UniProtKB/TrEMBL annotation:
<dbReference type="GO" id="GO:0009535">
    <property type="term" value="C:chloroplast thylakoid membrane"/>
</dbReference>
<feature type="transmembrane region" description="Helical">
    <location>
        <begin position="212"/>
        <end position="235"/>
    </location>
</feature>
<dbReference type="Pfam" id="PF00361">
    <property type="entry name" value="Proton_antipo_M"/>
</dbReference>
<dbReference type="GO" id="GO:0048039">
    <property type="term" value="F:ubiquinone binding"/>
</dbReference>
<dbReference type="GO" id="GO:0016655">
    <property type="term" value="F:oxidoreductase activity, acting on NAD(P)H, quinone or similar compound as acceptor"/>
</dbReference>
<dbReference type="GO" id="GO:0042773">
    <property type="term" value="P:ATP synthesis coupled electron transport"/>
</dbReference>
<dbReference type="GO" id="GO:0008137">
    <property type="term" value="F:NADH dehydrogenase (ubiquinone) activity"/>
</dbReference>
<dbReference type="InterPro" id="IPR001750">
    <property type="entry name" value="ND/Mrp_TM"/>
</dbReference>
<feature type="transmembrane region" description="Helical">
    <location>
        <begin position="271"/>
        <end position="294"/>
    </location>
</feature>
<dbReference type="InterPro" id="IPR022997">
    <property type="entry name" value="NADH_Q_OxRdtase_chain4"/>
</dbReference>
<feature type="transmembrane region" description="Helical">
    <location>
        <begin position="137"/>
        <end position="156"/>
    </location>
</feature>
<keyword id="KW-0150">Chloroplast</keyword>
<keyword id="KW-0793">Thylakoid</keyword>
<keyword id="KW-0618">Plastoquinone</keyword>
<keyword id="KW-0812">Transmembrane</keyword>
<feature type="transmembrane region" description="Helical">
    <location>
        <begin position="168"/>
        <end position="192"/>
    </location>
</feature>
<keyword id="KW-0520">NAD</keyword>
């Protein structure tokens, strides 16, 4: 579908162009900055919603709103954008979470211009990545968020924030090397004119050994970002030290870049290799669910416990992508959307709790349900959502992933049984570490208003932010067709490509 208006270029460039105005805004304290960035994000999200409602055809299997222009002719680098249901759903998630993250950053008063600048640049990079139809542009957008996120991690947060920021950059940049080499190989392979157009690359065929090597190169980059065991160790350190608004971006959007890359590049372009590695993805995803759940149980730091819980839930994404079934892939995509909402909320709650209690150690918390009933209610609600309680979005996603594995006739009954046992074990362990976390935080008599005068309950801004996150969780859980039709045509197209493989 073509359009005379460059809608996608507009939503990609608007946040980063708006960020360049931050240094010239009047220096009237932090009041203007506090309103400016959320205002920009609301305008951007409104524009995204308008494009979604008025210009996207849900039943189309083709890429829509295609925009192409030459950028660097010498290396055949084009500004090529386009969307389908998969990319549009993640663009909507990005706009929604980023807007709420700017509200979560409201209390920041130190270097507010410097804080909001990388947040807006990251916003552009994330939308650009989900809309890219050129693999070199995809890599460019992948790298665009690296330095801004490093600044957000390094300058605001806990005492060990420089270490966590450096670890994040080291892991991500290391994975990006593999991504760049694999992307260039795809673009320049063959005797014809080099092309980095993803649509053109889908029609190419590669020798199996080369395809496997390319698949592994991309997989390493995406495994770092998702993250997938054993490339996950940067995430607990980062969540443990970062400001909670930055944690919302990391859990809500950045980790979804890895899952999107697995589907858009590995699943669509490297069909034979993915057919070979699908069972390995399932196996590592299942191991990740149990391992991260066990690791979460041993954490004394509240945000690190939530971080390992996040890693555990992303294991379902790997399983769904590896299942190569309608239900499994739909479940993986639904899990990315669901986790973007469920994963961001507990980290925001943990940050607001730390602002009041001045500690993240579970051993030093306890008994705060009485002075902070709103915080207790919302923490309990999102913990139940993380448990995949029926009626919540996580239940739908994890159920689809489970069905995707057990309905795949290519896997043996023993393999299906083993994966099912590991998934069930992870679910049981999740109830243990989440309910234990609630008990240690909110019950008992350790803290009170008399011992800590900062135990003030959640305010209107925090309640509004969390309500905005909770309503779509309930909506998707109660009526999954709110999001499933967005990707049905995309999943059908992917599975059709695999029907003649094997």
């Amino acid at each position: 579908m073509m359009s005379n208006v460059p809608w996608l270029t507009t939503i990609v460039l608007f946040p980063i162009l708006a960020s360049f105005l931050l240094p010239i805004l009047p220096r009237d304290g932090n009041r203007i900055i506090r309103w400016y960035t959320p205002g920009i994000c609301i305008l951007e999200f409104s524009l995204i919603t308008y494009i979604f409602h008025c210009h996207l055809q849900f039943d189309s299997q083709s890429i829509q709103l295609i925009e192409t222009s030459n950028w660097i002719n010498s290396i055949h680098f084009h500004w090529r954008l386009g969307i389908d249901g998969l990319s549009m759903s993640l663009i909507l998630l990005t706009g929604f979470i980023t807007t709420l993250a700017t509200l979560a950053a409201w209390p920041i008063t130190r270097n507010t211009r410097l804080f909001h600048f990388p947040m807006l640049v990251t916003y552009s990079g994330q939308i650009g990545l989900f809309a890219s139809r050129d693999i070199l542009l995809f890599f460019f957008m992948w790298e665009l968020e690296l330095i801004p996120v490093y600044l957000l991690l390094c300058l605001w947060g806990g005492k060990r924030r420089p270490y966590s920021a450096t670890k994040f950059v080291s892991y991500t940049a290391g994975g990006s090397i593999f991504l760049l080499v694999a992307a260039l190989t795809l673009s320049f392979y063959g005797n014809g004119v080099p092309s980095s157009d993803i649509q053109v690359l889908m029609s190419k065929s590669y020798p199996i050994p080369l395809e496997i090597a390319l698949y592994l190169g991309f997989l390493i980059a995406y495994a770092v970002k998702l993250p997938v065991f054993p490339f996950h160790t940067w995430l607990p350190d980062t969540h443990g030290e970062a400001h909670h608004s930055t944690c919302m971006l990391l859990a809500g959007v950045l980790s979804k870049m890895g899952g999107y890359g697995l589907i858009r590049i590995n699943l669509e372009l490297l069909i034979h290799a993915h057919f070979l590695f699908g069972s390995w993805l399932i196996m590592f995803g299942a191991i990740q669910i149990v391992y991260a759940s066990l690791a979460s149980m041993s954490q004394r730091n509240l945000k690190r416990r939530i971080a390992y819980s996040s890693i555990s839930h992303m294991g379902f994404v790997a399983i769904g992508i590896g299942s190569l079934t309608d239900a499994g892939i739909n479940g993986a995509i639904s899990q990315m959307i669901s986790h973007g909402l469920i994963g961001a909320a507990p980290l925001f709650l943990a940050g607001t709790c730390c602002d009041r209690t001045h500690t993240l150690l579970l051993d030093e918390l306890g008994g705060i349900a009485t002075p902070m009933p709103k915080l207790f209610t919302m923490f309990s609600a999102f913990s139940l959502a993380s448990l995949a309680l029926p009626g919540m979005s996580g239940f739908v996603s994890e159920l689809l992933v489970f069905l995707g594995v057990v309905t795949n006739e290519q896997y043996s009954s023993l393999f299906k049984a083993e994966i099912t046992v590991l998934e069930a074990t992870g679910t049981v362990l999740a109830s243990i570490y989440l309910l234990s976390m609630l008990r240690r935080m909110f019950y008992g008599y350790r803290l009170s208003n008399e011992s800590n005068p900062y135990l003030i309950d959640s305010g209107p801004r925090e309640v509004f932010t969390l309500t905005c996150l909770f309503l779509p969780i309930l909506g998707i859980g109660s009526y999954p067709n709110l999001i499933l039709p967005l990707r049905n045509s995309e999943v059908f197209s992917i599975l059709f490509s695999y029907s003649n493989v094997g």
